[in-house]
Recover the amino acids of this structure.
């Protein structure tokens, strides 16, 4: 992957303008798998107001929710940092590292080099404030300063982690709200998970218009996000890959029905790459086929167990006992391993 920015690390955002495509679980899997392989640190940033990634990291559904509630009350979350930035909108506070959560402290199943910036439901309310402050006429760089809040937070945390590389994964909400705009300006690479439906295909078009200014129309002028980014000479992430997730497979290939929809997603991605070539590598978009995880996602999410620790068998999940079978587990692990091979860390 040739996308580079200042620093010896990569920052990936997982985003698509559609929900239910597996962004959160893929963020968890990529973060934990790479932390297990890497000598450096991995930072997971939860930029979704639902904060599902944080719950998984903090111990899984149930206990993770209780631990997250405590962090929210203590304001040791992304939302807590944004509270501080509302009072200091144009410069970092110097307290950025205080919001860094060492995952292993809360969940012993996770590697010791994995860290979290916890999500917070208050992001929804803060989005309105972000828009108000960034829209102020003075200082003239208000929009830029406010839209660097998340980048400032990540920078401060990386400085605290010390020497060596730090790989960052930001789990984004589908909505292109203010907190998603901040996420896009805090990373240098974009991973687009898609499911096999028409909404995912249309969402590729939405990424082009919302993020890269393709076909936004003259009526919006300089008010659209892409135009604002250009006016302040800021950097948008390049598309690293489109992940074709949750496919039903036969002989290690997506079934005919899934394949047909994925072909349409690829077609629209190619159109976007032709319309906005500067936001893709010279080789064009990378496509990754990730099969249906079946009960793997249910068990890993509920228990807070990383993929590399998961074994075949039955697991207690509420009042049921889902079975993790060897064949789909191995197939899923193989696909994830192949995709990780395309990432820089």
């Amino acid at each position: 992957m040739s996308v580079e920015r200042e620093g010896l690390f990569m920052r990936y955002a997982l985003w698509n303008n559609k929900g239910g495509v597996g962004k959160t679980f893929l963020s968890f899997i990529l973060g934990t798998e790479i932390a297990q392989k890497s000598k450096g640190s991995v930072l997971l940033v939860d930029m979704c107001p639902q904060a599902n990634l944080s719950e998984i990291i903090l111990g899984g559904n149930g206990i993770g929710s209780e631990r997250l509630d405590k962090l929210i009350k203590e304001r040791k979350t992304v939302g807590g940092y944004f509270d501080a930035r509302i009072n200091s909108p144009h410069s970092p506070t110097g307290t950025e590292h205080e919001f860094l959560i060492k995952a292993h402290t809360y969940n012993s199943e996770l590697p010791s080099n994995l860290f979290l910036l916890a999500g917070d439901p208050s992001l929804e309310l803060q989005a309105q404030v972000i828009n108000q402050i960034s829209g102020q006429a003075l200082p003239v760089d208000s929009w830029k300063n406010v839209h660097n809040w998340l980048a400032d937070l990540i920078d401060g945390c990386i400085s605290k982690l010390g020497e060596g590389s730090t790989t960052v994964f930001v789990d984004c909400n589908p909505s292109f709200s203010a907190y998603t705009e901040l996420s896009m300006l805090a990373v240098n690479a974009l991973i687009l998970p898609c499911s096999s439906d028409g909404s995912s295909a249309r969402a590729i078009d939405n990424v082009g218009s919302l993020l890269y200014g393709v076909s936004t129309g003259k009526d919006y002028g300089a008010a659209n996000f892409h135009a604002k980014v250009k006016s302040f000479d800021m950097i948008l992430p390049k598309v690293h890959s489109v992940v074709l997730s949750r496919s039903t497979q036969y002989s290690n290939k997506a079934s005919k029905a899934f394949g047909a929809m994925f072909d349409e997603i690829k077609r629209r991605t190619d159109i976007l790459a032709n319309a906005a070539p500067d936001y893709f590598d010279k080789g064009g978009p990378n496509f990754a086929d990730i099969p249906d995880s079946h009960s793997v996602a249910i068990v890993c999410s509920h228990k807070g167990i990383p993929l590399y620790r998961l074994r075949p068998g039955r697991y207690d999940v509420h009042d049921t006992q889902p079975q993790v079978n060897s064949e789909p587990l191995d197939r899923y692990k193989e696909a994830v391993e192949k995709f990780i091979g395309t990432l820089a860390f």
